[in-house]
Design a protein that fits this description.
The structure is a single chain. By secondary structure, the protein is of the alpha/beta class. It is built from eight helices and 13 strands. The structure holds magnesium ion.
């Protein structure tokens, strides 16, 4: 029997691709995702190096995206993944056939359904704090099949002052994971998140622990799931690298 392929858990945005604004002068080589509103300035692209890296990983390893993107936003990613996928910050695990994994969906339903009111409260808190501090944001609850999964706030206008204001937005949410990177603040419920889903899938695909695993990510909050893998991989221009 051939050796099993290594498992690669990889964040998408700002790890495998990014919007044109974040390409730091690199030419877009390949379109990776289209924007929800069809605005080509918000589409995502790979550099030549990212494209080569993706093709190499996708053909030689079991490459599993681990993304905050909702099912809708993930469907706009044009890369030919062919294995499992972790989306909506871990709330949904898709099988290789693209359908939600039933056991994980049941667990998520039990975990998140009782938190719907708290999630609305967190959204309201963030909105009123942003208004009070004059921070121009758009915000929403990411839902999957009518289930609220996490809360997100995004800046409309990016400046040093607005970034600092968003990072410091006073929201009372004890035990919730606070992800802040670039123009996005997300509040993720306790027990949910990329790490819980990655651990579950890791157990499922590598029960005897013989497959080497790699974790790719750019955000400090990605470290939670990356640390469940054998080797951590980070873009040299990333929030994690900047914090070292
Ligand atoms: Mg990222």
């Amino acid at each position: 029997m051939p050796d099993p392929k290594p498992l690669v858990f990889a964040d998408l945005d700002d790890t495998l691709f990014q919007t044109r604004r974040k390409m730091n002068g690199n030419a877009p080589h390949r379109q990776a995702a289209v924007a929800g509103n069809g605005d080509p300035r918000k589409s995502s692209f790979m550099t030549t190096q990212q494209s080569v890296l993706f093709d190499w990983l996708n053909s030689t390893t079991e490459l599993i995206p681990v993304t905050a993107r909702s099912g809708d936003a993930f469907s706009r990613v044009e890369l030919p993944f062919h294995s499992w996928a972790i989306i909506s910050n871990g709330a949904v695990i898709l099988g290789p056939d693209g359908t939600p994994h039933a056991d994980w969906a049941a667990r998520t339903q039990d975990l998140l359904h009782p938190l719907a009111d708290q999630m609305q409260d967190i959204l309201d808190q963030g909105r009123s704090a942003a208004r009070m501090h004059d921070i121009d944001i758009r915000s929403w609850i990411v839902t999957e099949n009518d289930l609220a999964t996490y809360v997100v706030f995004k800046l409309n206008e990016i400046s040093e002052v607005s970034l600092m204001g968003l990072e410091a937005l006073p929201i009372h949410a004890e035990g919730w994971t606070r992800h802040f990177n670039s123009e996005t603040l997300a509040l993720i419920p306790p027990g949910s998140g990329k790490a819980a889903a990655t651990d579950y899938l890791h157990q499922h695909l590598n029960p005897d622990g013989t497959r080497p695993s790699l974790g790719f990510g750019d955000s400090l909050s990605d470290l939670h799931y990356m640390q469940g893998t054998d080797i951590l991989m980070i873009p040299s221009r990333s929030q994690i690298a900047a914090s070292l």
